[in-house]
Amino acid sequence: MLSKSQISLVKSLHQKKYRKEEQLFIVEGLKSIFEFLNSPYVLHTIYATSDIFPKLANLSHKQKKIEVSDNDLLKISTLQHPQGIVAIFEIPKNKYFNHMEIDEMTIVLDGIQDPGNLGTIIRTADWFGFKHIICSENTVEVYNPKVVQATMGSLSRIQIHYQSLIDLLKSSSLPKFGTLLQGNNLYETTWPKTGFLVFGSEGNGISEEILQIITHPLTIPGSGNTESLNVAMSAAICMSEIQRNILK
Amino acid sequence: MLSKSQISLVKSLHQKKYRKEEQLFIVEGLKSIFEFLNSPYVLHTIYATSDIFPKLANLSHKQKKIEVSDNDLLKISTLQHPQGIVAIFEIPKNKYFNHMEIDEMTIVLDGIQDPGNLGTIIRTADWFGFKHIICSENTVEVYNPKVVQATMGSLSRIQIHYQSLIDLLKSSSLPKFGTLLQGNNLYETTWPKTGFLVFGSEGNGISEEILQIITHPLTIPGSGNTESLNVAMSAAICMSEIQRNILK
């Protein structure tokens, strides 16, 4: 059985305030947890119910595995339908991305608010083999359980950097692409090997100060029936275009 | 003030069972509601709070507009953050798509379960100007409030057909594309003017019986890091490829 204080620690991590204080976050589901275990992320504790616990037999982290009742797992899970296993990992120190280390077209997110959108963008970036995503400081926190869940383990492989976008982008002379309602035809874009590709927030698009330093405005040609595409869809379409260009 | 029976009617429509019984569904938000009003959908009633109600002044549906208190709106809304306006529209009769009426590459969904995914696919299809989406009978119901919300009004412009996919696809000699883990390179695909493009469910992909009649299996080339892409992302990427081909 879990002690009250153990339950209260994990439950506190449902909230941003305590994730920040403890520098810990939650991952759920066996597949995702194994992907984090096979990554540089540092495990704090795994809690699993009796049907899942035997699957952890090969893990060396003996002192960090705790078998719990279904009822206790229900208490600590963030999910409506818990998957029998909850793990806590350490939040790594935020590392600023230096424009000198760029070696790919690099995704930049300017104020994404929806956890599902951020999570899916990370998952799609992983599919296409991107290594970094740079987030403005007002982008939703990547260790929000809904973001982690939506990445389906991909967060363990993509480096996420929170920092001032204006400082980063101004320090680089590389092309800065951005998706807008009025830009050049995406399908006629020639992609450089390195550069930045900025996506704006769900409600407001790219912020005013970043707009001013976009060198290559892009538009995904549409029918004109609807005002906008969901940002995760725009990101998927653009990442696919970059991939298409790399494979050419 | 709304009567108890009015409140209970709208609240019942949060559930599939009663939507089916009443043949009514809910749309929320001024922008989406106006898009449905400008479409063949038939209005049943609009409920709006005092700050939104004046914006309905130009509507001719006098008998169908009801001003409600914030508190009553909260009761009938399906949203965590209601937008001051809830409308009920009639569910149109499901119309089978006949393979003879095909005039575009046509999206087919085989068992999509997540309302957000279905909604976003509809929104993306609208962006690119697709007119029809065909859903297997086990696809999530399109009048689920979460689907309607995620379409952001696009549902008012896209015709959705629920029917047996096997009957439809077997009756047509046109190419049947499908996204799989092992298929031909998406970027090397030559798209015909008409044909079907099938996407499978989140958990299981395309069902066994449909797989057997796919003539053109496709794969979105990835890095191999992650097992799968979210189906709404795959759909967005493929629809963009079709658009690219049309514009060529």
What does this protein look like?
The structure is a homodimer of 248-residue chains. Chain A has 248 residues and is an alpha/beta fold. The first copy, chain A, has two domains: 4-90, 2-Layer Sandwich (60s Ribosomal Protein L30, Chain: A), CATH 3.30.1330; 99-247, 3-Layer(aba) Sandwich (Alpha/beta knot), CATH 3.40.1280. Chain A is built from nine helices and ten strands. Chain A has helices at 4-12, 16-22, 30-37, 70-76, 115-128, 145-151, 165-170, 208-211, 231-247, and strands at residues 24-28, 43-48, 65-67, 85-90, 105-110, 132-135, 159-162, 176-185, 195-200, 216-219. In chain A, strands 7-6-5-9-8-10 form a six-stranded parallel sheet, covered by helices on one side. In chain A, helix 5 (115-128) links the parallel strand 5 (105-110) and strand 6. The first copy, chain A, is elongated, with a radius of gyration of 20 Å.
Give the secondary structure arrangement, pairings included.
2 copies of one chain form a homodimer.
Chain A: H1 4-12, H2 16-22, E1 24-28, H3 30-37, E2 43-48, E3 65-67, H4 70-76, E4 85-90, E5 105-110, H5 115-128, E6 132-135, H6 145-151, E7 159-162, H7 165-170, E8 176-185, E9 195-200, H8 208-211, E10 216-219, H9 231-247
Parallel strand pairs in A: 2-3, 5-6, 5-9, 6-7, 8-9, 8-10
Antiparallel strand pairs in A: 1-4, 2-4
Helix pairs in contact in A: 5-6, 5-9
